[in-house]
Amino acid sequence: MKRLCAVLLCTAAGLAQAESTLPFGRSWAGEHDLPKPYGVGFDLFSMDQAYAIRSLDFELPGASISDPSAIRVDNALTHVDLKADAWLFPFLNVFAMVGNVHANTRVDLGAVTIPNVPPGLLDDLLIRYSGEVYGGGLTLAYGGKHWFTSLTGTYAKTSLSGDFDSSVRTRAWQPRIGLIAGDWVFWTGTMFIDIEESHSGRIALPFLGEVPFAVELENQNRDSAVFGLQRRLADTVDLNFEFSNSARRSTLLNLTWRFGE
User: Fold this and answer.
1) What is the rounded radius of gyration, in angstroms, for the C-alpha atoms of the chain?
2) CB contact at 8 A, 71 and 107
3) Taking the domains of the chain in order of start, what are their residue ranges?
């Protein structure tokens, strides 16, 4: 990942020195000011949310789950990445990112019934994992001098390491509408996230020793209202902050350097 980050930064340095042909179709924007065509940014993202269980299996004779929906599952993660983007057209931005994620998924095993084991004796199944994140996406945008609307789609896949065999795939769509006031930009919108997370391996349980398990999870609430603001610190530097405190709790801090003419 370090090598890929170095390549992105070296490419950005080269583009900063060259005359840009982007975006194509500049005349379509009329007299509207356009952002500089290239950007390199740093993201710090955190999120806490509830998960739903798609399937949960224990290779343990007599074990049963009376109601999988009663099992409480919570996930908390911190994600950092380096992102590079380019405006191909005045209305279309594309981006790629590489980063790292650290997360905890906690599964409450109180709903698992095992003969001769008192109810509530089992501990939570705590799954800790980390790994490299690779992804990309696009943004469609339209607006005027003092307003804008946009739609961003993102796909990310995580190469994980940890105590178990794990995988995570994320797809997100985010429509926004916002107000432009000089060096400040304010917006609101919705973030639709579809997460598929799976883990398998062996977990140590009281009185039972190590037990093979497999669990498939998905996020319980796929949409959540978000609010954000941007401050232009300089002609080439933007600082962004976005948060959600409804169905999911999340924060995003982004610093982007824009360049090119």
Assistant:
1) 22
2) yes
3) 2-259
CA distance 171 to 136: 10
Residue 6 gets which letter from DSSP?
H
The type of residue at 260 is: G
User: Is 2-259 CATH 2.40.128?
Assistant: yes
Q: Structure tokens of 213?
A: 């398990």
Q: Give the count of beta carbons closer than 10 Å to the beta carbon of residue 182.
A: 7
Rounded to the nearest angstrom, the gap between the alpha carbon of residue 220 and the centroid of all alpha carbons in its chain is: 15
Q: What's the pTM value of the predicted model, to 2 decimals?
A: 0.83
Token pair for 243: 């948060």
**What 3-state DSSP class applies to 182?**
coil
Tokens encoding 16: 């900063």
- Residue range 244-257, pLDDT digits in tens: 988 789 999 999 99
Cβ atoms 138, 93 nearer than 8 A: yes
Q: How many CA atoms lie within 13 A of 174 on its CB side?
A: 24
